Amino acid sequence: MTVSRITALETIDIRFPTSTTLDGSDAMNPDPDYSAAYVIVKTDAADGIDGHAFVFTIGRGNDVQVSAIEALAGHLVGRELEPLLATMGATWRDLVGDSQLRWLGPEKGVMHMAIGAVVNALWDIKAKRAGLPLWQLLSTMSPEEIVELVDFRYLTNALAPEEALEILRAAEPGRAERAHELLANGYPGYTTSPGWLGYSDAKLEALVRQALADGFTQIKLKVGADLDDDIRRFRKARAVVGPDFPIAVDANQRWEVDEAIAWVSALSEFGPTWVEEPTSPDDILGHAAIARAIAPIRVATGEHAQNRVVFKQLLQADAISIMQIDAVRVGGVNENVANLLLAAKFGIPVCPHAGGVGLCEAVQHMSMFDFVAVSGTRDGRLIEYVDHLHEHFVVPTEIRGGSFVAPTAPGTGMEMKADSRRAYTFEGELHHVA
């Protein structure tokens, strides 16, 4: 067998001037410039396949994030590729196990996200070599192979490997049928496009109507900067969609615990289906207190949860009714497999965070894998959709009738077009390229 080696980790600082249109604006981030610390794992393989991935940021954080990815070059450049791809669980543990880099977390923050980018790029190569989209590649693996991907360290008091095997084996008989169903009908989504805080009331109302016309069965509004403003905007959205249509709200970590309870209570007359990130993403007990106080309104969080251990505690504390994984916040595909298994163990639906730069393209694979091979259901589960920046990706997200169309192209979906990478490489000043 021909041996191929990793020849380089190429990093690119990519930034889009989304602050000029206030796309992505919320109570905590009023002027984000959606960005990607992008990595290409380059090899000398005869097939010419490279691995593409990124970490999503909103601007200056890219300075730090790109450097963190570059710090991993010594772990990979020059190594044989095939052994890394054959045992992705061991590869993950090897990267995370560098004690000097791990000290910066441990297993959280920019270093852990950098590891996730490299891991995701390796999965991109693995899926492309298999000729399968990531969701399908994962769904063809045996329960034993999937369990091998997960680092169960710190999880066994909530989820043991044997329990994970039971979950996966229980879902195994219906895999083929669910994969066929997914390819035929897709995976339900909801949209945040109408809800950015910087939008005018007229734009909000127009985008809510567009969401209904596009077939979405839920929308989300950003809240948390001004209560009177939130009440007015919620009232306008509710007037468009009617009394029973699900509307979620997202505070983006803006509130203290007591403030969250009071604020959500003030919005309760409009029937929010869930409140997202009501307080610090690290405050497990705070989320639990909010969840108890505002029930039956549900609490959702997870886009800023730093690792599987935080998710474990949120579930153990009954702090969330909705788990929101992010494709690039944790240590890549492997750790999100752990998060999906934890959610299945606790019977909590996963509704991923998306939007941003390429997050829809990336995280849809995890939800689709969950449906086919883990939870075996789409009930109560939605993937977030935001309608911007998809045109920059080789395999852009496709929405049909408010649902994500299951991708069939090989890879993770994280590869950005070469022209877009060149046009939006940051060189000291944000610029718009037509």
UniProtKB/TrEMBL annotation:
The keyword Oxidoreductase does not apply. SMART domains: MR_MLE (SM00922). It is an enzyme of class 4 (lyase). PROSITE patterns: MR_MLE_2 (PS00909). The keyword Ion transport does not apply. The lineage of its organism: Bacteria, Bacillati, Actinomycetota, Actinomycetes, Micrococcales. PANTHER family: ENOLASE SUPERFAMILY, MANDELATE RACEMASE, MITOCHONDRIAL ENOLASE SUPERFAMILY MEMBER 1. This is L-fuconate dehydratase. It comes from the Bacteria. Its EC number is 4.2.1.68. Its cofactor is Mg(2+). It catalyses: L-fuconate = 2-dehydro-3-deoxy-L-fuconate + H2O. Gene3D superfamilies: Enolase-like C-terminal domain, Enolase-like, N-terminal domain. Residues 201-297 form the Mandelate racemase/muconate lactonizing enzyme C-terminal domain. Keywords: Lyase, Magnesium, Metal-binding.
